[in-house]
Amino acid sequence: MELAWWQKPIRMMRRDFLGDFSYYLTADLGAMAREAKERWHINCEWIMATPGCAPGTAHLVTFNSRKFDKVPGLGDFDIIRSYLPHAKKYGIHLVPYINQHWYSYEFAKNHPEYTQQLLEDGTPYGEKYPLYGNGTTFCVNGPWREFAFEIIRETIRLEVDGCFLDGPVIFPKCCYCEHCRTLFYESSALKEMPPFGDWNHKAWKPFLKFRRESWVRFLKDAQAAARAVNPEAVIFLNGGRFDTYSVKTARDISGMEKYQNFSGAEEFYHVTESYKSPFDTLNLGRFLSAGEKPGVVFTHHTLSSWHKVPLSKPEMTLAMTETVASGANTWFAIFMEAMESRAKEAFEANDIQKFFAEHEEFYTATESAAETALLTSADTLYGYISERRELFADAGSGKEENLVADIGDGSIRESLNERRTVSESILDKELHGAFDAANFSHIPVRVFWDNHVSTDKLKDMAIFVLPNSACLSDKQVEVIMEYVYNGGSLAAFFESGFYDETGRSAKRTEWLEFLGIEKIKGAFRPAAYEEYMLLYGDNLPGMRRDRILAPRTYNALKIIPGKDSKILARFLNEIGGYYAKTQGVSEFPAVILSERGKGKVAYCSGTLFESFTKFHLDDHLDVYKSIMRTLSADSRLQIETDAPGSLAVEIRRNEKYTLVHLINTTGDMKRPIGRIVPLKNVYFSVRFPKKPRSVRAAVSRTELEFEKTNGYLKFKVPEIAAYELVVIE
Ligand SMILES: [Zn+2]
């Protein structure tokens, strides 16, 4: 089947002039297009149709239009019409950027009929929370939408390839305008709006659903507007993550994918004091690429806090290589003032994209070849509030400092809204940890969205991981059980499937028995200190010793296991303080294994992934890897290597090749990474049923010697700098 241009490998960029477009008036536009292709190695460029800069200029256009006001200073000069022929000459698809979320106060004042997003008390959002310090925003359900659609139509009339919408954003605490009220009452049959974030209110969950649907409806109509001018026009926007931030901004990736060409979201580098996973881009890219539309990860080629400083070469290389390894397309923005003094390093930092441009056959029409699936459950994001009272105890940080240990006072947070906050924290850490535990263990994972849980999609997967996927439908539970009875393996964590898809307690006796749980007796008090679990190494493949005392998971349920389940680890009785002896082994298991039909179920009653996010301990990684080995048919992982955890491994395939992406984040022990430390003579064993014709390391252009034994392909890579791509033909 012939692929459309946007279904082929796409490398996008945006040059950012921050509202001052005078550069174009004297620039050599042909040279700009040539530079885009030859030095930035891109094939799709965003160009501003409406600027995204202070003081909120989304109503101004950079092209000549009888319908919209022009950005001042451009005179008759039409940026898009002038640049388009040059872009075409160099094979660059032009996709203008349309800002649809940031307007000046003045524009809003002159157009009260467009309706700003309103807070509960009727205050316009931008008055209370000025956008980027200055400006406001309109409601997707108000008459502004017609203005927005007309800008889209007018942009597509320029004969460009499509457009990107930056926003609209349904901001947290919004929207309570008259249009939203009317629509909400009609669609929900309710008679009042809930206070924002009030999980006690009966209208709250319907309101969350309404916000998601408002978004999807806007995008549907925006796409129709673009297609009315050009049926081939591409349209997409920014949004959709796998954590609870999506709930606040109402993004719904599976609902939106029907109406856009790319599933895109941003993973910008932000300078921070706290720990930052080196694999955030990879994880987001996998999530975005899981659907039917190609993914794209938006990266700023900048330090973010200082936009006029480009990313270091190691950081830029990680962002770009993690993006393509996940199956997504690259995108970056460069702030042009950065180019005045740092052009050379900015170009060099992006060098790796030359490799992508010259080897498109390795990035075309690929799919994940991971044998492990990971569920990112949106229903759980929207519905999860644990009913285990003990989880809401104040446990402090667990830190001991200046002779004081912060272990909390044990008081229980009783309000539903506080309990939701705690549940969100568990869930977000569990999800991020599930990705990163896999990365640090070199286990490639394929992301499943809720709607992917089907017999057909699961049949190719060896192991299905539920990282506290608490809110599952009856149908999903049925499909998962059938998958296991037919020979699949399941790794279920904590409260997976304990609630229905709306978040109500599910009371599923059959499911609990299936997991190996006879009874749930409660939960331990959360603890970030001095509580332990005992690992039975003889039952946990890959462990160093028979009995290992390891830090307990931060959260832990007290369950009584079924008679037919094997106990792999147990929690110790609570110690309850520092510098005190252990109090013996409890009756409550931490990990159990059960045979079910032709398959196996490993159930972990602790939040292993949340704990990995919080503490980054190898003991927890070892438990995870051991669970994965236990569930594997031959006790081996899909990929085994002697590389450190800082090397991420992803495996994809297309008609011709199996592609093993190796991303080396080994650096100088800080972020942003200043320098990558190359890995030498790294051994790999990859489960591979066929006999390969050749195995080569494409970046270093080396043919690799390989051995094929018992279904595994074994080879050594002499050197891995920042990125290597092993091509198995
Ligand atoms: Zn509204």
Short description:
This protein has 729 residues and is α/β, with parallel strands linked by helices. The chain has 21 helices and 33 strands.
Protein architecture, described:
The protein is α/β, with parallel strands linked by helices and 729 residues long. It contains 21 helices and 33 strands. Helix 2 crosses helix 3. Among the domains are: 372-518 and 592-636, Rossmann fold (3-Layer(aba) Sandwich), CATH 3.40.50; 640-728, Immunoglobulin-like (Sandwich), CATH 2.60.40. It is globular. A hairpin with a 4-residue loop joins strand 26 and strand 27. The chain has a 9-stranded mixed beta sheet with strand order 15-12-16-17-24-23-22-19-20. Strands 4-2-1-10-9-8 form a 6-stranded parallel beta sheet. A 6-stranded antiparallel beta sheet has the order 11-26-27-33-29-30, covered by helices on one side. The longest helix is centred in the N-terminal third of the chain and has 26 residues, at 204-229. The site of zinc ion has 8 residues, from helix 7. Zinc ion binds next to helix 7.
Write down how many β-strands occur, each being a DSSP E stretch of 2 or more residues: 33
Shape descriptor = globular
Helix and strand composition category: alpha/beta
Strand content: 15-25%
Strand order of the largest sheet: 15-12-16-17-24-23-22-19-20
Rg measurement, Å? 26 Å
Sequence stretches where pLDDT stays below 50 over 5 or more residues: none
Mean pLDDT: 96
CATH architecture of the domain at 372-518 and 592-636: 3-Layer(aba) Sandwich
Q: Could you please say which CATH topology of the domain at 372-518 and 592-636 applies here? A: Rossmann fold
Gap from first CA to last CA: 21 Å
